[in-house]
Every structure is written in C-alpha cells, then in structure tokens.
Amino acid sequence: MTETATETTGTAELLSDLRAWLNENWDPDVTVAEWWERLGLAGWSAPGLPTNAYGKAMARADTVLVQQELAKFGALGAPAGLGLLLAAPTLATHGTQDQIDLYVRDIVTGQKAWCQLFSEPQAGSDLAGLQTRAIKDGDEWIVNGQKVWTSGGQYADLGMLLARTDVDVPKHQGISYFAFNMLQDGVDVRPLKEMTGHALFNEVFITDARVADSALIGGVNKGWAAANTTLANERAGLGSGGGNAAGGGLAQPGTVMGLLDKRVGDLVGPKPTARGTQRSQQPGGALGAMRGGAGVLINLAHTRGVNKDAGIRQDLARLYTLGELGRFNGLRLKAVKERGGDIPGMPNVAKLSMSQIVRLTRDLGLRISGPAGMLHAYDSDDKAALKHATGDPFAGSITEMALFAQAPPIYGGTDQIQRNIIGERVLGLPKEPSNDRTTPFSELPKNA
After folding, report:
1. How do strand 175-181 and strand 158-164 relate by DSSP bridges?
2. Between these two residues, 258 and 330, which has the higher pLDDT value?
3. DSSP readout, 207-255?
C-alpha cells in the first residue's frame, strides 16, 4: 500500500532517457554544486518548467515519476526548497528571458536558496492588504516593512517579495513583485520557534533595504498576477498528489547552508529496499512522516501490534484512499491539460485534501502510539531520553507529526480561503460585498 505515481506510455521514453543519463552522469565523488549543475542544466531538476527555463515541459504527475526515478537510482535529488517549488515557475511565467537566465539557472543548479516574503502581521488571509512599501530611487527601490511566517528565511539568499509601490490605486493594483536580496544590510530575520521545537518559520524586518529595478518581476504594480502564480504553485505543491523533492537525501541549496562544496555521495541516503525506500518506510520527523503517507503508519501499526484493530484498519484504509485520490486527481489534470483544457480549482481541492490527510495522520498516529503519544522531545537530549524511556526510536517523530499537523491547514492559504476561492471562482457564488477593488488603498481602513 505504498503511494506512488503511475508510469504511462507517454513518459516511458523520458524515464528511459533519465536512466541512461544517470548511468552516464552520476558520480558520488563530485561536489554537490557540480552534481546539481549537471542535473539542472540537463533539465532534470525541474522537468515541469518550460524548455526556455531549464525544464522539459513535463506534466506535474510525470515530474513525480522523475523524482521517484532519481531516488530509485540512489542519486541526490533536485535542490529542495521554495526556489524550485514557487520562484522558478513564477519567473518562468512572468519574468523576462534575461531574468530567467539569471535567477532560474541558479535555482535549478542549487546555487541560490529562496524564501517567500508575502504574509505580514496584518495581511495574512487578506494578502492584498499588505503594507510593506517600496519607493523608487533612481535604478533601485527602497523597501521598508515587516513580513512573517517566512519559511526558510534564515537560509535564503533571495526572497519573493511583495511590496506596495502605489497607495493611490485599489489595493490589488498597487503591488509589485521583486527578486529580493536577503543577504544585505537592513534585513533582520528572526526565527519563530514552534510547539514542535523547530523553527521553520521566521519574521523578517526590512529597514531601508534596496532592490534593483531590474529585479522587478512582471512590471510595476502588476505583482498581484505574479503572486497568484506563486500561490497556485504553492497550493498544488502542498496539496495531495503534489509529490515532493526527490530522495536519496534532501539537501538544502544556497550559499548559507554550506553544502555546495560537500561530496555529493555523502548526502545520499540508503538504497531502496524491496518494499520501498527506507525514507518512506520509517518515520523521519513531521514532514517525512506526512510525505510517507499511509505506508509509514501501516508499518507502525504492525510494529505496535495494533494492525488487527478494526478501527485503526478502517482509518488506515481511509488515509490510503485519500492519498490515491490525490494521485488520480493529478493524473486527471494531466490528461485534461494534454487536451488543452484545465480543471478549475484543482490546486485548491488538493490543498484541502492535504489538510484532511494531515489531520487524519495526526489522530491515527497518536492512536497507534497509545500512551507514548503524550511524550515529545524538543532537542537532541530529549530525543535520547525519550528513546531510552520508551525503547522506541520513532515515538518522537509521531508526536512531532501530531503537533505539526495544525500548520498545513493554515499556511499556503487557510482551508477557509480555499473554500472561498472554490465557491467564488469555480462555482460562481457571489463574493462578499466590498469596495476594496475600487477604492484607493490609501483610503481603506487599516488593521491596527
């Protein structure tokens, strides 16, 4: 009951090409930077991107197969993070060719890591209400403001920055999108520690920082269109059936993490086993366990001796079914797009489905764990003590997964926002009465 994508006739030849390419190019003794340059410039880091943006124009469902093939071969996968997931497809859609060559090349080769500078303390669900300002100063823009919930901001070289460049037009029309240098004076990144004990998110304070006019993506005051492209990719990537970065080790790109000069073979995990990779079979933290899908908890139920419990078996079947539905929706979308069509709202449906999956994974994992589910380790010493007390090396991963499960239904657009989008943009239901599409932003009431 492992959750994998399905190879179709149309992708068999491409995967055959990938296997041949790997046999010729994989070398565990080169540096991470050299391997990622080979992978990225050959189009295998981000095969879903168009060919003019270092991709192969493959459907999302097929890119999952590429990720699986890289993991099966035992090679280090593509650079992890928001550069590939969000920045690259946005740049490929709204950037100039010069911007694509400058920024996307560094993304697919792992040279630069990206973060997302969208949400603000008073502009989360109402993202268009953001108040970070960018004011033109010659060939540059001066930026001041505050961002929050910035995933990976402490490791990022660049950020996808939304800033207000005109307050005298309606709020959606006065926003611009920049490729913003995070490693400059005036940028203060402060990690936010979560109840899991980790700090995936950050708040970012920007004071008189600068960004070149050439880093403006999509044109002045046209950032909302680019932002929607980023958000659509975020929801599709986070949603059920969205896939994840190729395995054999998930290495973080960019200059801050310091991995580019490491030997690539040292970052590759164990070879796959007959029942799938060890990564997918063993809980490895909150994200690892959730990505593992039903397979992780099925194995855990066997280990705990509760695999015969009727209620647990029923919920394991539900979890597996939700994962399969996500996969089949991805295949449906691929087939429709190959005919030149689309399925409106599918990224939002996928995001809602993933929220359901993580909640079920949380509840089921704790039921399988029993009393050990009340214990959690917040640092390495705690983890050692928990393992010693329970005799179970995976107990901390299950509770971490349960604590983390509250986040996915919120980040990337809350469940409520996804339902609003489906209702208004897909089903044609009336929007809530508002004058924010016609009133200049400077005249709108602001949150305190």
Report:
1. antiparallel
2. 258
3. EEEEEEGGGEES-TT-HHHHHHHHHHHHHHHHSTT-----SS-----SS
Residue with tokens 């993991």: 71
- Cα 294 from Cα 315, distance rounded (Å): 10
Tokens 């901390």: give the residue.
Answer: 396
> Rounded distance, CA 33 to CA 109, Å?
7
**Tens of pLDDT along 171-180?**
999 999 999 9
* pLDDT tens by residue, 147-156: 999 999 999 9
Residue 51, C-beta contacts closer than 8 angstroms, at least 6 positions apart: 43, 57
Written as six digits, the tokens of 292 are 């593992």
Does pLDDT of 263 surpass 60? yes
In whole angstroms, give the CA distance from residue 26 to residue 5: 24
User: For 93-113, what is the mean pLDDT?
Assistant: 98
* Cβ atoms within 10 Å, residue 51: 9
Among residues 370, 391, 196, which one has the least CA distance to residue 286?
196
Alpha helices in 293-309 (DSSP H): 294-304
Return the half-sphere exposure (C-beta side, CA atoms, 13 A cut-off) of residue 189: 24
Rounded CA separation 96/177 (Å): 13
Average pLDDT, the chain: 87
What are residue 211's DSSP bridge partners? 141
Taking alpha carbons only, the member of 229, 223, 266 closest to residue 248 is 266
pTM for the model: 0.82
Give the three-state DSSP class for 180. strand
The angle formed by the CA atoms of residues 50, 53 and 59, to the nearest 5 degrees, is: 25
